[in-house]
Write a structure and sequence with these properties.
Elements: E1 2-3, H1 6-11, E2 20-26, H2 44-52, E3 54-60, H3 66-75, E4 84-85, H4 92-100, E5 109-110, H5 117-123, E6 127-133, E7 151-155, E8 177-178, E9 181-182, H6 189-203, E10 209-214, H7 233-257, E11 264-270, H8 295-298, E12 299-305, E13 314-316, E14 320-321, H9 325-333, E15 342-343, H10 349-353, E16 363-367, E17 370-375, E18 378-383, E19 386-392, H11 408-424
Parallel strand pairs: 2-10, 2-11, 3-13, 3-14, 6-7, 6-10
Antiparallel strand pairs: 1-15, 3-12, 4-5, 7-8, 8-9, 11-12, 16-17, 17-18, 18-19
Helix pairs in contact: 6-7
Amino acid sequence: MSVWPAAAFAAAAAPASPPNVVLIMADDLGYGSLGCYGGDARTPHLDRLAAAGLRFTDFHSNGPMCSPTRAALLTGRYPQRCAWVPDEDLSPDYRAQRQANPAQRWAWGISPAELTLPAVLRSAGYRTALVGKWHLGYDFKFHPLNFGFDEFRGFMGGNVDYHTHVAGYGRKEPDWWHGKTLAPESGYTTELLTRHATEFIARHRTQPFFLYLTHAAPHDPWQSRDPARPLPPAEAYREMIEGLDASVGAVAAALRTHGLERDTLLIFCSDNGAAAPRGVPANRPLQGRKGGMHEGGHRVPFIAVWPGVIAPGGVTDSTAASMDLLPTFARLAGASLPADLTIDGTDLMPLLRGTGPLAPRPIHWLFGNAWAVRRGDWKLIGEGDRPRALHHLGRDLGEKDNLLAAQPSLVDELTALHRTWLAGVGRR
């Protein structure tokens, strides 16, 4: 953990021309789903990006589910440290809506008191846009335009039907927005979001911008592009990944078209591990899946490209996480952060530039009653007050060998580290 004083950011003078930042996030894309990570799907555009930049083999979401990771990414903080607004603080109209339809259990949202990445970049002169999925609160109190985004096109909830754009998870209502206005559109979700993203690039090509393109794919429902030609889930899932790859290609092409390729840091990642259709090895060679503490729940693809700055063809096994993006982008923009704000992430640019390694640090996960702590190659998984499994990831990436009984002193050390962290984020 580190605390970044505002003076430290102010001392790092903004570059003469601050780079654009394009962050493309897939939804539930597993570690082993892309061609460049050994997957079976055809992903030529992402494979080309990996060859042009730096590919991470040990990058992690800060949670094994959607919302915690998004909160960590936007705040630079562990999601457990972020403030969340409870049900009683929601607007009266929203509470009444929930009482009328108890199936809608959406009584939470990230606190407007949190300082977010788009707000930091907007203060540094960037135009900011969220195109795609929000999933950090449904009431307008939690609307992305209240958190530093200048523009929003997409959906507020966890998923939508790819053709009708009706919300899932029991809500069954339109969830397709232009700003704070419902704006129905015809078309396949992945392709609509791609169009809005490339149009944003074209509109703001003469000023620094931050584009956060958060795709729905390949999150369920697993739907093919042609509604008249439904596919079996496994085939639809593959098609959705290939459509996601085509979208990345279109965004990269838009940057080239407008002469912005060398002025833009382009990053691709996933929000957590896959929950793929039965029989699809989306997280291989990892054990586990979305929602769990094994590597398959939170180790995800991550590719960074910036011609002239990031050397092509690189692969790094340095351990990094979603929370690292805010301090990385803030330093690039020459932005300052409040001196009393605790930032858990670390600046990745020395690693991206090839000028230095990341300092060693432990990383923690907590989801419900399940938890994990990582220090070096050692990872301890627990539930409640009890450690359950100890793995050495350098020798056993698939987490098949439980060394809990063989390393009692190390188990005690890592358990103590976890408990200290819990106290630090206000959970104990």
